[in-house]
Amino acid sequence: MIRAQGGRAAALRRFLVTPTDALPLLVLRVSFGLLIALSAARFVAKGWVEELYLAPSFHFTYFGFSWIEPPSAPWIYGLFAVLFLGGLLLAAGVGARWTAAGVFVLFTTAELFDKALYLNHYVLVSSLALLFVFLPLAPLRGRSVPRWALAAARLQVGLVYAFAGLGKLEADWLLRAEPLSTWLPARAEIPFLGVLLEQSWVAFAASWGALAFDLSLPFLLLWGRSRLAAWTVAALFHACTALLFEIGLFPWIMLCATLVFFTGEELHRFFTRATGRARRDATEARVAETPRASLAATPARAAAVAFLLLLQLLLPLRHAVYPGDVLWTEEGYRFSWRVMLAEKNGHVVFWVEPPGEAERAVYPSELLTRLQEHQMSYQPDMILELAHHLAHLHGEGTRVRAEARVSLNGRRSRLLIDPSVDLASRPRSLKSQSWILR
Amino acid sequence: MPSSPVPVARCRLLVLGSLLLATVAACSEPFPHEQLLADWTEEVILPLHGSLVEEVEKLRNATRSLAAEPSLETLNAARGAWKTTAVLWQEVALYRFDRMLLAHNQVSKRPPDVEFLEETVTAAPETLTAELVAGVGSLSKGLAAIEYLLFEPAGAEDWVEQAGEQPGRAAYVAAASEQLVTSAAAVRDRWLPEGGNYIDTFLNGDSETDGFRRSLGKVLNRVVAVLEESVREQLGRPLAAGGESARPERVEAPRSATSLALLRSRIAGIERVLLAQEGDGLRLADYADHLDAEVDGTALSTLLRNRFGSSLAALDAIPEPLTRSVVEDPDLVRAAYDELRELLVLIKVDLANQLGVTLTFNDNDGD
Q1: Which among A250, A360, A405 has CB closest to B345?
Q2: How confident is the model at residue A116 (pLDDT cuts 50, 70, 90)?
Q3: Rounded distance, CA A71 to CA A80, Å?
Q4: Contact at 8 Å (CB) between A184 and A202?
Q5: Chain B hits for A247, Cβ within 8 Å
Q6: Is B318 strand, coil or helix?
């Protein structure tokens, strides 16, 4: 029995270190690097560095990372310039692993500057960059990589779809078609298709279709016979989301990421057709050139990749340990690939009572940008953080209450947090917060 | 020649698909998005801007008469013209989109630069011209500056008496009013095809974005910003905790004692954006009705109508001047404050949620 298990482990190990064509990983790395460069350039060109990092007088921080603050203008523009360069170098395969490490550090630091800017696809960018640090990245004229490297990249991309699909298994999405019932009619002025978007059955069809898409796509991409059709559907799906919603680079990142599911042979065929000339070195020959021994991961790298993927598996599930609806409380919401599941709007007034003074109202718009205010208005941990900031501004012993009214997916607005609680006295924590009204 | 079965099959599919789409389209009554924007511009925005220029011209004429012959009669006429213009401006100021801030500041920006004004009015009246006013900062001209000079706390008789001793005061008011005609026309011209043609951007969007959703977002953003400012600054700040802790000096227009009238005009202006009155075309509430927007079984449009009614009634119940009411009738002011807060939540949270309009357009990537 033990010998059989040992045999299976050895066979699995042999399978994982079997060389396979590096082209899918190479395509992922090149497209990813170019998108990073585009993203950095776009951020600067649109004036977002000024608007989102330099203009605000206050920034929301992540728990444990409050020491990370946006630096002054020259440094932050320098950061984006280096990030742009890093993206290009990563695409070119120059010092790929070190470049990936640099891209990860810079991009993640920029993300950590302000929690109000949290976006799922930023997390995906950081996750992929970190994964690249430990993967044997193929050089530009790559030969082969071990199967585990390709599997790790595919698992990372597949998990995004899988958790996005699992997140849709909830009543609002399935039974009320929310938030699509709200979002689609709001786009009804689009020529021709607009008429359809106002139909309630379209919202239901889209909700259930998106659920089926997310849950099945990774598997359909893995299966050779359905791969091309699945990717074509994915391309249409992401093109539709890009047309209907303001989600920036997200659709294009996902579309490029899914290319990693193609085999080297399929990609070679595609490039041959596209360029009209056959590549000199056939896949098999190039793969065979690589000695198997060189493909085995060092234990440290294999452990790092395994740890990262385990983290990716567990983080999205952590909401299960918090009571209440994750879409309402947002406890365990971030890093869980719950993409476009909620239309939330809120309004918060803080009641600040410095020692010995009368309580008075403070409106967040006095301190925050509109984007920050909007994000804070329905996220309890951000409300708590601003309450702490207000207490700090008004001196020790200041009491701060918050009256937060929030509407989720078309429901009547109601109180999000207990308005009688002095938030200044409540510490920031990853534990479930009793002052959130569930 | 035998026909190929494949093209025929494809044609059938195409026809079937088109028929299906046409049937679906015919079954539904799409909301006329363009019509809503057109009704907003033709029935509200453009007439308001046109009226503003007319009223400012009346103000200019009244202040000219005042400068020529200071008397109680000409002073009251000028003050009346100022009030009419200032009340109207509250509605116009709602439509301050994109890069209109500077132009709007030329018409009204608070607080006025009192030090500069008091110093300037001591100059010889013939030197105080519209050209001079055009060159000063926005805090030294426009409606707020005119209000400061026109409404002397000591009373109308004192004002007329002082005008004889210091003719520069009336001359500066007249010059500022003259210059205001230019500023108001500039704000109006931003919208007109022969000017900035913003009407085209409003109706059709810009090169990057569609018209309806972008304009809807802009209007709602402004509605929420103005409403929140009204709650926070115009009522909240002066009221504070009410009674002894009240801060009457924080009311918007203490000299002219028009704070409540200005606030009421602002709320009524917002109501005109959202709710159609008899004879009006489409308004935002009609769009909400089209989407079957409701809260706990009640149509959002009904909730809005009721809330506007109670809010305006609560404001009407407060006696002017607000400086006195926040001290003597804090409960009445508090009631209006609470009503407006409820109205704010209804629009900013419930209405925006049902319309799927995120009230923060910086076009940063979402999700």
Answers
A1: A405
A2: very high
A3: 12
A4: yes
A5: 365-367
A6: coil
pLDDT at A350: 97
Burial B216-230 (b: 16+ CB within 10 A, else e): bbbbbbbbbbbbbeb
Range in A225-234, A361-370, A416-425, B355-364 the model is least confident about: B355-364
Closest to B326 (Cα-Cα) out of B231, B214, B243: B243
Q: Which residues sit opposite A417 in a β-bridge?
A: A436
- Of residues A283 and A174, the one with the higher pLDDT is A174
* Distance (Å) of CA A186 to CA A145, A181, A183, B33: 47, 9, 5, 10
Using one digit for the tens of pLDDT, what is the confidence trace for A145-178? 889 999 999 999 999 999 999 999 999 999 999 9
**CB contact (8 A) between residue B365 and residue A365:** no
- Note whether A321 contacts B: Cβ–Cβ < 8 A: no
CA distances from B277 to B34, B94, B223, B271, B282 (A): 19, 19, 18, 10, 10
Give dist(CA B338, CA A150) in Å, integer: 60
Query: How far apart are the C-alpha atoms of B302 and A9, rounded to whole Å?
Result: 68
Q: What is the pLDDT of residue B4?
A: 47
Per-residue CA distances from A377 to A405, A433, B44, B141 (Å): 8, 17, 32, 37
Q: So what's the ipTM on this one? A: 0.86
pLDDT at position B3, please? 44
SS (HEC) of A342-372: CCEEEEEEEEEECCCCCCEEECHHHCCCHHH
